Amino acid sequence: MENECSVPTACIDERQFSIVTTGKNKSRIHCADDSLAGAVSQRACVYSGARVVLNPVTDAVHLVHGPIGCAAYTWDIRGSLSSGPEMFRQSFSTDLKERDVVFGGEKKLVACIDEVVGKYHPPAIFVYATCVVGLIGDDIVAVCKEASGRHGIDVIPVESSGFLSGNKIVGYRAAGEALLKLIRPKDGETVEKTRKLNFLGEYNLGGEKWLVERYLREMGIEINVAFTGDSTVAALKRAPGACLNLVQCSGSMHWVAMNLEKEYGTPYIDVNFFGAANTAESLRRIARFYGDEEIVRRTEALIEREMERVRPVVEKYRARLAGKRAAIYVGGAFKALAIIRQLQELGMEVVFTGTQTGKQEDYEQIGAIVSEGTVVIDDANPAEIEKFLLEKDVDMMAGGVKERFLAHKLGIGFVDHNHDRKDGLAGFDGAIRFAREVYATTCSPVWERVKKNPFEEAEG
């Protein structure tokens, strides 16, 4: 890859190594840097990184220790569905005020924990540190330890203060540490090993966990617990008993998988259930792990049947989408890679792509599958996204809630692949739904009546 911003006027100087163009020059993209202050990064904060990982634990209380503004990132931030408890949809905050910032908020946190336990009797409470807590120095670890002993439940600190870093992936690590504390057996406890598997990085958006669970059940395999879609505290504590860990969202769960292997000897494999081809490959990988001929036979029968449904749909829309130009900007690289592959199967050319939390090896994979001249960007800001959407003459963009408005403002079709969506896009069913959505937005007649570049008149 070669650097895109070779002249100072093309982008902010500090950002020039975070934007590259695929080509003969193999310059390495900068992707571990903290977000640039003042650039209004599309990347979320440390607290939100922790929150999106833990929030789908359905029967736990999620208590935000900070100003009420941070609690805005609570209720329904994920499109996660539950088959039972709905506690995770409640919003709890210590609502720190100026007085608490001056004199400390520990007493208020203690009072909030006591009130929540007395009213709701949850099996566990996650206490999230926010930027203000990091600034004033409240010892949430000590408060949570004391509360756990007093109430006889797990009160777990999530050290997600934004002053730790300007990188959302640090919040993933904080969430992972909290999960390991939760599932680690207490003294004298043991968890019996089973033939079931854990599904890491699956958050049951639009019921996607249930869909994959259906496939696995048809193969003769059961899910032990998902991290953390449609999970409960009791189910998560059974996690050490799995024989295999599937890792879908690598950014949020690779570190957890490595620690589960280290502590409990549970191996892990990477999977990706976005797109028909990825789903088929992942199911075959799982079947090979079990080494059971009957499981392999069932898996191949399932794949053959489902691909027969998907193939004509893809061919139908490919005839109408061939040659269209696409852009992608999403949170994790595993999702970006899956979307690139799906769009290429639909005959589209990906000319601009990026992520919030991709790693060096992720960007190398992306660079290997896109065409020469594709712009690849890490931790973009809105100005950069708009710039490349226009320069690359994009017809359709796939991204999250923050990117939707940028695309629509520029008269560009948009497919929502965000974590708060309610429609499942995983598996074979999701591949069909995704193809239909791409076609519907890319080929909508409304774009013929929308000015492609609203800035042209102003510039003229």
TrEMBL record:
Highest taxon of source: Archaea
Pathway(s) per entry: Cofactor biosynthesis; Fe-Mo cofactor biosynthesis
Record Pfam families: Oxidored_nitro (PF00148)
Keywords: Nitrogen fixation
PROSITE patterns, A to Z: NITROGENASE_1_1, NITROGENASE_1_2
Coiled coil: none
Domain Nitrogenase/oxidoreductase component: 45-441
InterPro entries recorded: Nase/OxRdtase_comp1, Nase_comp1_CS, NifE, NifE-like
Keyword Secreted found: no
Protein purpose: This protein may play a role in the biosynthesis of the prosthetic group of nitrogenase (FeMo cofactor).
Family in the record: Belongs to the NifD/NifK/NifE/NifN family.
Protein's UniProt name: Nitrogenase iron-molybdenum cofactor biosynthesis protein NifE
Organism: Methanoculleus caldifontis
